[in-house]
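Researcher: I'm preparing a figure for a lab meeting and need a structural model of a single chain. I don't have an experimental structure, so a prediction will have to do for now. The sequence is pasted below. Please return the structure as tokens so I can convert it later.
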Amino acid sequence: MAALQIIGSILRIILRIVLLPVQAILTMLMCILGFAGSMFGIVFRIAGGAIMLGAFAELLYPPANWFMFWETLVAGAVIGSLPEILTNWGEMFLGFIKESLSKI
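Model: Understood. Here is the structure written out token by token.
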């Protein structure tokens, strides 16, 4: 029984050594995802702001269409926040994978 415990602990150490580069790659992917998310975030926030500005401009020109105003306002908010939502989801997913690998 003691021999099985020793073999199990040796296998666990070998597995941790093998998984160490995988965790390093996942950490780099998280950094890359954060950088790309911030770059796309700038572009999408400008686009979402322009769409929301267009929604307010919709109210200035007769006839004022309230349904179109709210629809455009929500679309601009979704477009403006989409990269941040995807970045947070991706970082959470990669963090979950890293945490699962560290428990091995």
